[in-house]
Amino acid sequence: MSHPTRFLQSLALRCKEQFEENCGALHVIFPNKRAGLYFASYLAEYYDKPVWSPVITSFESFVEEQQDKKLADELQLSFILYKAYKILVPSAEPFDAFLPWGEMILKDFNDIDNYLVETEHIFSVIKSQKELDDSFQFLSEEDKKIIQGFWQGFLPEPDKKQTEFIKTWSILDRLYVQFNELLAEQNLIYKGRLFRDFCEQNDVLEQRQVWFAGFNALTKAEEQIIKGCLAGGNSDIFWEIDQYYYQNEFQEAGLFFRAYGQDDVLGPSIKRDVIEQLNSPDKRIELVSAPLKMGQIMAANQKLDELAASPEGLKDTLVILADESYLPNLLDKLPASVSKVNVTMGWSIGHARFYILMQKIIALKLSLTHHQNRQLNYKEILSILAFNDLLGIDKASVDAFVAHSTENNRFYFSLQEVEVLLPVLSQLLRPTDETNEFLQILVDYIHGLDMSQLQELDKSVAVALHATFKRLAQASEQYQVALQMVSLLRLFKKLGNTIKLPFTGEIDGGLQVMGILETRNLSFTNVLILGMNEGSWPKDSSQSSFVPYNIRKAFDLPTTEHQDAMQAYLFYRLLHSTENLWVTYNNITEFNKNGELSRYIQQLKHESAIQFAEASVMTHVQAEPAHEITKTKEGEALVQLKRYLLGSENPRRLSPSALNTYIDCSLKFYFKYIEEIYEPKEIKEDIDPSLLGNLLHTAMEYLYEGTTELTTDTIATLENEIETAVKSSFVFHKLEVGEGQRTIGRQLIVLEVVKKFVVEILRADGRYAPFDILALESTDYLVDYPIETMEGSAKVALKGVIDRVDQKNQHIRIVDYKSGRDERDFSGIPELIDGDSANRNKAVFQLFYYAMLYKENHPDSQLPIQPLMYNSKDLYQRDFDGQIRQKKGTDRKARTIMNYQEVEEEFREVLEGLLTEIFNTSVNFTQTDDTKKCQYCPYIQICRRA
């Protein structure tokens, strides 16, 4: 044999030598069935003719075969326990409230039976200190002190929580009995009770011929069964132990073996089986740190390619997933060099895409049940459409839904609308208050799926969920539990961890992929472990229990130390025969996972003679360093720029917003108005400041539309139309509001803000009335502004939309509504176009620009033109007049601009200078020096600034 020191091979050889051809009466019991398959394969290699094979099984199967009761699954146990609880407590809380602590009780009952604890004793411990003194003569003095030490801090001044805790525990003894009686009525049993009953009823263990092989942490029931068989002299037990962790009391992997070594019955076999293979300088461990899951998988693929190219290939190579969520990605990304893969693990469906989809559907259905008029928001629907392939929805339908939602700024949809747009979702979410009816909907949906269109993993999960939903409905009816939607969601989340797909690959040929537990007793030359982080291996060993830690210790129930020791042994055992261990771990902290290497590896690095090599895989997604960007006015850029000059092909016009953009950052102007790089259109649930301003402007246009003369009586009439005007504005901007549609809280607030703003505008206008409205926003004002360029005279095509132009007597007013934080004061005309000035007032620049447009469009008028700003900051003041004031520094005296003509000459001078610069080909488009302006710039990813 090529590896005679491997545990299963040496065990097979021992069986051949001891029994020759007469091993058919022997039972060989392993921790799991996978080890048995390998043992049978090795054993067959020792015979050159057919012989009766031993009966090879797992401990659980061995015990189950001896009894006539059937093991109940987790779902049945939860329902039956709740039924027992309701018998004892008729006013019990609903099933969903019972589930969390019901799960704890099931685990505790299982532990109590597995460790053969006297139930009446452990249940009585919690009740009172007096009972503690009277009932614990069976305990040693040391055990009594442990329990009393715990209760000294717990009992002296019991608070409400402690009282409720003890009250709950007071029925556990009766609940245990009632629960087991209900199980017995259906000929059902759970694992712990199965082992307890076998220990108590089976008195013929000594007559058995049994080999127990490869065990580590035995429950008291398992230990008693093993000792019962060993007592007859025909049975034996074989351990897989290495000197490295057995002799060192600080090594947690040897915790149980050191205890068994002191046992009169088990001790001799422990000492016989200790080997010394682990701590060898011939072994090699290579550590590879890589970013996140995919980084590790890609690194592993390189190693698999390397091993596949070797003479031995992958026939003696094992991949272990310390984090089983890696499985779908690993299988999806395996290199072409891996021609065959054998997966052996109980894979939790909670990691599967189909399970996640169903959980989203149930959660959404729960929300719809609680809020019957609730609509579905865009993000909820989109998160479900991410699984469109599982829903049978083609990508074109998804794209059409996104386009429809974006174009109409639709964030909320009724079920009726969803039915038209996405019939499959309507089928899954159709109205029903009955949870069982909803379960049938899910069953019918999965049954109707075209399984041929699903990947193998999705297909397996779909089949498992189909069976699960049917069983849930049946169990709800059978045990008369009114399953609420919230109970269904909570139970479904629990089932995501408990329902496992039993992948069982072949043992010969191809790459082996396993979970941690499946590796027990198996040996491979090359082992790759993915996800070897602290928190994955070892996992957090804390557990929820109604049995406090100290009492667990006193009754020899498993504690966190037991869990830690079991996990440690599973790792160190791998190194007995492994020659090359290749380990990846995530070096980036994400969510609740850290980037720390498992402590097992770190301990080996410092304590063993094993050779170590380390490497790091980095994804070089390094941001390009920020650098200065300059765009010249030549070539295509110049062609596009000249479109804003009169007489050009495909002419365009510059707005005051475009000019303000240029003043702030000429490169931003280039991106937006030359290259025409626009922000992608998005659905807006929240209302940003620019949209708020648009809502106000549109509302005022709707309100004053058709009104030419504004009097106090007219204003009084218009006040009754404010609500309609504002809602019409919301509809115009494709925001959902009004009858039959959902007005979400934030939009409702904005609705009220806009209404209040309109009310204040009417009040201000009421103080000025009567006056005539000459123009509203529907009017475009165009001007061809003359400048001198390096190529000669030219005219710049300008435009603007003025919020309102009104007239009283012989006085024209240009009114601009501002919903932001704009000020009405400015320091001087030159500062209005100084992008570096902290005092630059964009809003005043815009007002003077509008005044210029109006005057140019009415050259014969000699009437004074006064620019006014209705800004939100000042609008609510009693003496608000909207006038623009020039105020320098700390000077208290301000110059009120009553007529645009007062500043016209100076303003035209600076405007001409600005326009001349824009079309000056020797002046490049450059970035602003003020990086604060870059913070919310849509082109920040291009410039890589801020």
TrEMBL record:
Q: Name one Pfam family in it.
A: PDDEXK_1
Q: Which residues form the PD-(D/E)XK endonuclease-like domain?
A: 653-944
Instruction: Return the protein name.
Output: Exodeoxyribonuclease V, gamma subunit
Organism the protein comes from: Reichenbachiella agariperforans
Q: What is the lineage of its organism?
A: Bacteria, Pseudomonadati, Bacteroidota, Cytophagia, Cytophagales
